[in-house]
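Lab notebook, design round three. We kept the backbone fixed and only want residue identities now. Task for the bench partner: fill in a sequence for the structure below.
Input structure tokens:
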């Protein structure tokens, strides 16, 4: 049984210990490594656009930008950046401008600024778009949305797409959480998958290319679109990131390590509305819970009474980035197999409703807050439940229903899997 303990001491750097999980005995080759080993056969002689970010590195830690630049049979002509930009130095939710890259001299087109998808002008000198983005396996992370929008634009304009595959840090055996109602499809929910989807970014690309309705293009364009996924070698579905033997490179400013990935899947939704905070600005982003007006002892006791399987809670003291001491409740994952990652978030929502009573944010939210909440959570039924029933919302019934749906989704996607257990 997987047992994952997030063990922390005050002022120490975030760490995660995974006993009984052995690292891969053979080196894992990422999609970029496999492409390079083939002498770039899939893109040789073509004019290449590259959509990537700082985690787009080969197994030796070299940027995919540099790998393609030095390939003599590849002509890299443009770079495309998602949220946070190609160097990861842009803040979340802040538009990014186009520019000329000072390091390479190549144009950098932002897909998180004026445009969310490549325009015809951006694509006119490109034969193939290479996508090398490290996802974290959670639906509301925008890199898969950027991939989808880019695929749609490329297919519309006759540009081939090559996706370089990468591990899902949460592995490929766990799917969990609410599905996405079609009305809430957006840039923070681009695919109709459970909140924790259990797929690699390459597998998501394969499903969206093959399945009607997953891409917003005509059926003729979808069928004619050219997609190649370059699979990894050596990765297995059972692997969490620490088993890969690969260094984890921050995928965005508040996702520095696997612990933050786990935390994002567990608490990200629970702090959407109300007075819970989940550790942004501390050494433990998405794992350090506080509630305005409540002591850490009260928060810990309230969450422990809920008997959420697979997790426990510890009170710790640390410091904010500004150096101020702060106490809070650290989320501790004790049993990965038993854990339903998103369950904690819905208990956080119910606890918020219980503590706030008539002032519940689920009753007083603005139209914009409701819209953003539902785009992340994805379930109209849950919104109506937490809004009307509040502290009496049937969390367990919803979580059990979503678990069955996620398990069915997991089985239905098997034909598109590139990797076995």
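Proposed sequence:
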């Amino acid at each position: 049984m997987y047992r994952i303990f997030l063990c922390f001491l005050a002022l120490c750097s975030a760490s995660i210990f995974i006993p009984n999980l052995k690292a891969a005995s053979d080196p894992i080759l990422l999609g970029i490594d496999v492409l390079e080993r083939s002498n770039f056969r899939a893109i040789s002689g073509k004019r290449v656009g590259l959509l990537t970010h700082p985690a787009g590195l080969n197994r030796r830690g070299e940027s995919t930008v540099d790998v393609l630049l030095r390939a003599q049979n590849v002509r890299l002509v443009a770079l495309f950046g998602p949220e946070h930009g190609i160097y990861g130095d842009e803040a979340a939710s802040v538009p990014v401008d186009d520019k000329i890259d000072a390091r390479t001299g190549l144009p950098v087109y932002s897909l998180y600024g004026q445009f969310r998808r490549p325009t015809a002008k951006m694509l006119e000198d490109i034969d193939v778009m290479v996508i090398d983005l490290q996802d974290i396996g959670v639906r509301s992370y925008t890199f898969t949305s950027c991939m989808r929008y880019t695929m749609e634009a490329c297919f519309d304009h006759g540009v081939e797409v090559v996706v370089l595959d990468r591990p899902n840090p949460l592995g490929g055996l766990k799917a969990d959480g609410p599905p996405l109602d079609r009305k809430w499809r957006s840039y923070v929910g681009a695919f109709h998958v459970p909140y924790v989807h259990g797929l690699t970014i390459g597998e998501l690309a394969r499903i969206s290319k093959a399945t009607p309705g997953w891409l917003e293009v005509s059926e003729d364009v979808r069928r004619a679109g050219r997609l190649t996924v370059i699979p990894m070698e050596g990765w297995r579905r059972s692997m969490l990131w620490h088993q890969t033997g690969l260094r984890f490179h921050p995928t965005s400013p508040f996702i520095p390590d696997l612990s933050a990935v786990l935390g994002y899947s567990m608490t990200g939704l629970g702090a959407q509305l109300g007075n819970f905070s989940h550790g942004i600005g501390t050494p433990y982003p998405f794992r350090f819970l506080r509630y305005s007006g409540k002591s850490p002892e009260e928060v810990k006791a309230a969450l422990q009474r809920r008997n959420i399987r697979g997790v426990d809670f510890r009170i710790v003291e640390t410091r904010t980035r500004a150096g101020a001491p702060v106490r809070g409740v650290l989320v501790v994952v004790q049993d990965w197999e038993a854990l339903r990652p998103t369950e904690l978030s819905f208990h956080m929502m119910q606890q918020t409703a219980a503590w706030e009573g008539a002032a519940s944010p689920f009753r007083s939210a603005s139209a914009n807050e409701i819209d953003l909440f539902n785009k992340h959570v994805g379930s109209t039924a849950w919104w109506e439940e937490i809004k009307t029933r509040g502290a009496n919302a049937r969390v367990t019934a919803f979580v059990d229903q979503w678990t069955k749906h996620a398990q069915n989704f997991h089985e239905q996607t098997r034909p598109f899997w590139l990797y076995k257990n």
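Keep this in mind before ordering anything: Residues 258-412 form a domain with the Aspartate Aminotransferase, domain 1 fold (CATH 3.90.1150.140).
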